[in-house]
């Protein structure tokens, strides 16, 4: 897992 | 997308519409902290740089464009159109105390050490405290127009809705975003005092007034 940032969240 | 996040986003959208409506109809930005609004522009611009290189969805795209443009529009209303109604002498919170620590935190906590990812972290940290100049102003004047309190309530509800969204995503998608979650909890906690007065006074039909 490269990043655990939720990219679809605003 | 789940319902919690949808409600959160809609609440965020509503808060901005309420604020613009308040300024337009009263033809005044009295009671609104320019510093908080300027911080939101900083938050959105530094977070939504991915508009240029990452496609998520049409919904995501339009919301990002809306948040950037509406926050800039609010600054325009406050600094140009209704400038005489903006009183900087009561908007005295020192925002460098927010910007500095958020920048340092972003340099320490991020998911990848790249310019855009560090700016993303910075925007998340800054958003969690961006309301402080506004709350500080409220505290100082001790009162607020009812419409302003609706704006703040909708804005507070937005990140509050994100908390069940994160719990839901943890269970269903196994996604955890520790930076967003920690800041989101801090952000929501900052509103607790306000929510207490909002629920016990404003929603009972009384004016928003803090005890002297």
From TrEMBL, chain B:
Subcellular compartments: Endoplasmic reticulum membrane
Name of the protein described by the UniProt record: ER lumen protein-retaining receptor
Keywords recorded for this protein, A-Z: Endoplasmic reticulum, ER-Golgi transport, Membrane, Protein transport, Receptor, Transmembrane, Transmembrane helix, Transport
Alphabetical list of InterPro entries matching this protein: ER_ret_rcpt (IPR000133)
GO molecular function, one term: ER retention sequence binding
One biological process term in Gene Ontology: protein transport
Superkingdom: Eukaryota
PROSITE patterns xrefs: ER_LUMEN_RECEPTOR_2
Major localisation: endoplasmic reticulum
An example Gene Ontology CC term for this record: endoplasmic reticulum membrane
Similarity field: Belongs to the ERD2 family.
């Amino acid at each position: 897992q490269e990043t655990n940032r939720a990219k679809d969240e605003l | 997308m789940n319902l919690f996040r949808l409600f959160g986003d809609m609440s965020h959208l509503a808060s901005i519409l309420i604020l613009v409506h308040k300024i337009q109809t009263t033809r005044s930005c009295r009671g609104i902290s320019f510093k908080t609004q300027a911080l939101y522009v900083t938050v959105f611009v530094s977070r939504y740089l991915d508009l240029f290189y990452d496609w998520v969805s049409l919904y995501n795209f339009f919301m990002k464009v809306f948040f950037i443009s509406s926050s800039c529009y609010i600054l325009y209303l406050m600094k140009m159109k209704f400038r005489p109604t903006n009183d900087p002498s009561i908007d005295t919170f020192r925002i460098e105390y927010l910007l500095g620590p958020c920048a340092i935190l972003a340099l320490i906590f991020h998911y990848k050490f790249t310019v855009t990812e560090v700016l993303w972290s910075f925007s998340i940290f800054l958003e969690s405290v961006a309301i402080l100049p506004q709350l500080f102003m409220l505290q100082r004047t001790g009162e607020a127009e009812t419409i302003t309190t609706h704006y703040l309530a909708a804005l507070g509800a937005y990140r509050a809705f994100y908390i069940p969204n994160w719990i839901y995503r943890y269970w269903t998608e196994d996604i955890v975003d520790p930076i967003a979650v920690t800041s989101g909890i801090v952000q929501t906690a900052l509103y607790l005092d306000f929510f207490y007065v909002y629920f016990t006074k404003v929603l009972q039909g009384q004016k928003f007034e803090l005890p002297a």
